[in-house]
């Protein structure tokens, strides 16, 4: 296993995502979608519920939930869909990164497909493997992505050239009542990224991070996402 793991870690990256037809790529006919978590025990008290940014009890800081985007329109079908290319890890940031605010930028949503070789990373709320922050970690070969911008900071994904060294993310917003939404994404490397391939990590600041509570991130984001 050690030999196999070492071999996989040094195999040159092949951007399979460029060659395969994925349900999450390009600028297809995606819809703005209310965030409702999958019906899944891993989602705890939030399982199968709409996420509200003001609900710090159900959705506390430094926690995460599994979400499907794009939705089929049927939560049960979504929840049973094993395709990680439509799965996202919704993370409420730790308090030191603003996760304790009742604000939309307290949340980020990372693709469940590692940009190395497509295993499925998980949010680690402990600081066990990184001295400065909680991270998003892939169990297969140890790629670690930092929050909130999704740049890989360790492991084989961190050694890949941009844009294949950052995890795709969704653009979030909220309505006046605090319900969380996924804005219509643009799945290219200059915006939300290409699932299984990558994203220019600074698009978090320029496109993905909400500029203020209750809005999509920037005018660029609004034009790109909703146009
Ligand atoms: S698939 Fe290799 S580190 Fe994630």
Percent helix: 10-25%
* Topology pattern, helix = H, strand = E: HHEEHEEEEEEHEEHH
Radius of gyration: 16 Å
CATH class category label: Mainly Beta
Ligand inventory: FE2/S2 (inorganic) cluster
Question: Which geometry do the CA atoms define?
Answer: globular
Low-confidence stretches: 1-22, 214-227
Please name the CATH topology: Rieske Iron-sulfur Protein
Question: Any guess at the CATH architecture?
Answer: 3-layer Sandwich
Please specify the SSE layout and strand pairing.
Elements: H1 2-10, H2 16-19, E1 33-34, E2 63-68, H3 75-80, E3 87-92, E4 107-111, E5 122-124, E6 135-137, E7 144-146, E8 152-154, H4 156-159, E9 172-174, E10 180-182, H5 203-208, H6 219-226
The structure holds FE2/S2 (inorganic) cluster.
